[in-house]
């Protein structure tokens, strides 16, 4: 369906960090109001993030009208009201163990995302300041990660698949070396959200895959979807969406595949595009 020359948007998929949020985990008043107005018109607003739902900022998690969320880079599509996943794309124990061994070779700080929660090694929790990029989030990591003695033993005992393994290299120069080696591994998909980490999911798992399965579940056509993002892990969902938006602060690879370039996340770029493409306002 067309309205004013543009498809009728039924679902808005939004990255959080660098897109919907400002740098301090806060949603601006204009962004919030635009999303609330869209939801009041029946449009689904879906956070799409590398985080678990539980670890999203409260300003998003508690936003009235949020019904679904794409979590852990598409590994879990979460039904907020039913408190359950409607789609999962998980890694088996063998792959997780291999990724943890790989991270240990490069002395990484590893995290495991399982059943909507994120875990780290107890022995490394007090060492976050030794990891260059992770040190910027030391307080957040210590307050949100659940420590366990052994990640491999914990995953084995859990007896279920893992959403994501997150590796923080200790040395910056190891990042490209690790990236190149992981690209050759056919069992996994890798991406990054721009924070100097390597995010590892099951092969074929990404935000685009999660968005595809959510749209199939809701019988919404991709032409009726708007997606916005700023970094590498947002690329697949921008390729899927009929109306793709790169933020003004996005990396060039994301801008090159987007249909629209918005203002930056600090300039209410999300609100700008929601008002234009969804609410049909003159701006």
From TrEMBL:
GO terms for cellular component: cytosol. Keywords: Hydrolase. The keyword Hydrolase applies. The keyword Membrane does not apply. Pfam families: Hydrolase_3 (PF08282). GO terms for molecular function: magnesium ion binding; phosphatase activity. NCBIfam families: Cof-subfamily. This is Cof-type HAD-IIB family hydrolase. It comes from [Clostridium] leptum DSM 753. The lineage of its organism: Bacteria, Bacillati, Bacillota, Clostridia, Eubacteriales.
